[in-house]
Amino acid sequence: MEAKVGKFFESVANFFVGGDSIPWCDREIVAGCEQEVTEASKNSSDDFKNECIMRLSWALVHSREPEDVNRGIAMLESSLDNTSSALKVREKLYLLAVGYYRIRDHSKSRDLVERCLKIEPDWRQAQSLKKAIEDQIKKDGIIGIGIAATAVGLVAGGIAAAFARRN
User: Fold this and answer.
1) Percentage helix, strand, coil for the chain under 3-state DSSP, each rounded to 5
2) Measured in whole angstroms, how far is the alpha carbon of residue 127 from the centre of its chain?
3) Which of 146, 114, 79, 23 is nearest to 106 (CA)?
4) How many CA atoms, within 13 angstroms, populate the side-chain half-sphere of residue 62?
5) Is 45's pLDDT higher than 60?
6) 95, 100, 112, 158: which is deepest, by most CB within 10 A?
7) C-alpha distance from residue 23 to each of 60, 71, 99, 154, 161 (Å)
8) Are 33 and 56 in contact (CB under 8 A)?
9) Are 72 and 57 in contact (CB under 8 A)?
10) For the chain, where are the E strands, in sequence order?
11) What does pLDDT average to over the chain?
12) Each residue's pLDDT tens digit, 95-137
């Protein structure tokens, strides 16, 4: 019985805390990628520079810092139009979807991940992100309903208390 109760409380905690399977990136990794881009800009081929920039973009959208995530989104959006390879477009769309998911713009994130899945319908990483987005949207809706119900209850309680005092 204790195990069932423990699992129940764990699932409730996960519901409110939100545990997704998308990896996080530490500030040290972002700094290392920034250094790599700086060094690659000095004396490397365009292909190598672009690889370094993609690694930096990945690190930024997976960062815990909102300003890093926004910077990663801006980098990816500015480079998307110059991308001709379908594989690179897919990767950039996916990273953009991760970035928008991190800043809680779930509708934009879902649109981007669906564009990825049009390019590669069987891509498990994109399917996993889409599920995480949809789960988060459902959770946000449930929490919103709970907040609204609580507000209605408080207002109704206040009105009832006012009538009780009057009489």
Assistant:
1) 85, 0, 15
2) 14
3) 114
4) 20
5) yes
6) 112
7) 12, 18, 12, 40, 49
8) yes
9) yes
10) none
11) 82
12) 999 999 999 999 999 999 999 999 999 999 999 999 999 988 8
